[in-house]
Amino acid sequence: MGSVCSSMSNTFSGAEPDQEQYTTRTRPTQKASNRRVNTTTSTMEEQSTPAAMNKINSKSVLKSSDNKSTQSDFDSFSDEFVPVDEEQLYIDSYWWAEPKDLDDDDAPWKNTKAPKGNLGTASNKGQISPDKNGAAAGGVDPVSSESKLEHDPFENHPFFTMDIKRLTKPKSNRTKSMKNVGVKKSSKEKEKESSKNADDLAKYQLVYDDKKVPNIYPVLGDIRKNVDAKCHSIHEAFKSDPDDRDKKLIKVYSTLSVIDRAFIPEQYKVLFSEPLASQIKAAISGPFGNLILSLSYTIEDAEIEMIRTALSSNWKHRNEHLLRVLCGRGNQEIIKLKDSYEKTTEKNMDSIVKELQKGAFRDYIKMCLKKNACEKYQPKKKHIKENAKKVAKELYDCGEKRFGTDNDEFLGIFVRNPPPFLRLIDAAYEEKYKKSIKKAIKNELSFSAEVAVLYGVGMSLDPFDMIAKTMEKTFKGVGMDPIGFNSLIVRYHPYLKIIAEKYEDRYNRTLLDSIHYEAKGHYHDLLCKILENAFNDVVDEEDDEEVDEQKE
Prior knowledge:
single chain
């Protein structure tokens, strides 16, 4: 009992502390406020003594200095004006532009003389030296004076003189003419090769005549060319490792002419019992492989492969690649293309139209594929200037004048009229309605139909300028469109020299500049070689001699 009573007394004796703890939990704010009042009153009493006041003053000075140092860091990020040492700012701004040797005065941006009347003078380090009062040598403040802005010793530094008009594709530093690219030859040799190349193109009817659109297919007739040496070179290239193989193929394919490509596929199969196209498909891929493959076909077969590629894909370039092959063509070449397509695929070319979506684009492609869609040019009868004014009025009546476009009549005018007469219509339309027919097309059509008709009309009005614009279009966006650019190189290979000149005139940079920026690796090397050979009028004299011997 005694132990129990003692334990109970202990528990009851500890009741008051527990009760006091309970009250502190229920009302913490009251006790905390009481403590704060007690502490503040005690500290104020302590601070009232003189010794305490001296300690407080010394501490406040230290705290204020710390606050100033931290505050200055924050002020540097504010938008408020903060006075700075102009001399030190000018020095530090160009620390990276200083030469390695501080005593070197031959830096290219230092070879400038201060203009007369300029009060600020540049020192060896390219700085304006103010005096002790912050003014320049003539008593002029370098910050407020405009004389400092007139002469900048770093104005000739390469960083500040670069062209920033087009950062992604800088303007070329090459000369205007690209004829000097490649091997240097005498003027007589160049004239001889140029005339020889022109004669060959004329012989195969590949010289541009402004009365019709440019021909793509060479007219061979009974001409045969010996291409055995080039076939053996191609065959030997595939025996090497990939890097050497591609270099050897570049050397051969960059010199192939349109005539060579007309005979190589057949002769290669005769010599080696294997189609050249299948060997290329198994060994090479990518843009380089696509270009090599297209150059290994005849022009007709290459265009058929382009049509197949366009139809078998659901990508955004499908209609664009298709219209470049089918629009802006002559009557004879459309007939030849349709015959080759039917022979190769065992399908009628009209099946292509059925795969297209209904609308103006489909109607225009259908018109372009008709037999003899373009009228024969009659400059003294039907296609005269007076009739051009009538047709211009008809074009306006079926297009911009009315609400909604009469597609059959509107598109028919662009398809059936030959290029010289279409130029007269364009001039008459612009004279009467103050806009070109291209502007009328943009106002009446949209999407793929607009692109197709503009391309077809452009091939009649100014074909090489149209091709140059199309090439530039393949460079736009993130990365180039190599398939589209390859098709233009392959199809218009005989006219690359004229096209590149048009390109340079229009965009103020050479076609090689764009290729240097867009293409990479062996693909880049092959494109550059093809263009260089086109500019230098490279002719394979050995093959030409063999042709002459066969004729004799």
